[in-house]
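Dear colleague,

Thank you for sharing your sequence with our group. We've completed the structure prediction you requested, and as agreed, I am returning the results in plain text so they can be pasted directly into your records. Please verify that the sequence below matches your submission; if there's any discrepancy, let me know and we will rerun it promptly.
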Amino acid sequence: MANEDIKMLLQAIKDFAQWTKTIDEHGRYPQTIYHTQALNDFLSFAIINDVAWKDMFTLDTLKDFQKYSSFKNAPPALMALSGYLFSYGKIDQHIINPRPQVELPDIYEQYLMYYEQSINVSQNHLRQTIRILASFHEYLKRHQIELPALKIEHLDAFIAGFKVAAITRRMYSYLLRGFLRYLYYECRILKRDLAQLLVRPPLFAQVKPPKYLRLKEVKILFAGLKLSTHTESRTYAMVYLAYTLGLRPAEISRISLDDISFSKGELTLPKRKGGNPITLPLPEQTIKAIALYLTKGRPKSPHRHIFLTSVLPYRPVSAATVIYHISKAMKQTGLCSSSYWLRHTYAQNLLHIGRSIYEIKEMMGHQNIQSTSRYLHIHTELMRKVLFDEEL
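Please find the predicted structure tokens below.
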């Protein structure tokens, strides 16, 4: 390790520590002291192991440092430093969380590549898929079942083996059906499409009508939103997108700078659920909320996603982050509600202004009309008119 490399690393750690202190003054909390301690440990590690600058910010170095360091926050500290250096163009590539290293046969790996590229799933969703496929592979291996010999009885037995809630088992079935369709339509390994035979456990709670906010509650929510920190300005923009456009949390998390046309006042969703792209008009207040976050709250980053995490290393937020912060904002205003209530409120507003159920289906991004018809249950007047041709 050259003296120049040592100097570069030492200066990088000093700059990073000073930078995070500046950020703390604006309302973010990246645990500067603990990161600095771990990074000083990394400096010792790099000197002892003669790690060159070009090799410092790689996954292999991260794994070796994790074994060396006694600090529990060693990996996030090094990842935070790499994210900082990458944001300022001092390194070509920063360390990102790798997907779980699971040994799976080639057919599974091929599906994961196909799934990740064609569906554009989040990393959390991909990790869930890997876990369920790894369990499925172990099940088949344990019972000596080859994929071409797979039967619906095997699938039912595999799903039934999970002692989890019905909604979790439903998710497992959904993830497995994607793999089954791939085996049938893309690979022709299965003789029939078993995905359509894998019956999901019923969710009886779905017969309940969607919950939404009344006008008085909407006013309370927006009156209670704060803008004193960067995280709050981000939540502010998220709430407006959910309320004025009815976007799902996953859709909000995926919005990029390239999807918005401020001059036209439009938002394009190129990869919506079901694969149907759509361009939606952006209300003026929503544009202002987004612009406020972009100019005052969004950290500098090479990522094109609009919404980024508030601590280093800056990366696109997940759908879970969107859900958490919107729900938190609603609870802080005294509303016992969740982020999806805003989406349901959007649908309810469309019904009130006279949009047809088919128009609402397109604007909500539903794959089938049955999903949209649920909203008729909360609009009694329209329900009687559509179903019974009656006026109240």
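Summary note from our side: Confidence is low (pLDDT under 50) at residues 23-30, 203-207, 380-384.

Kind regards,
the structure core
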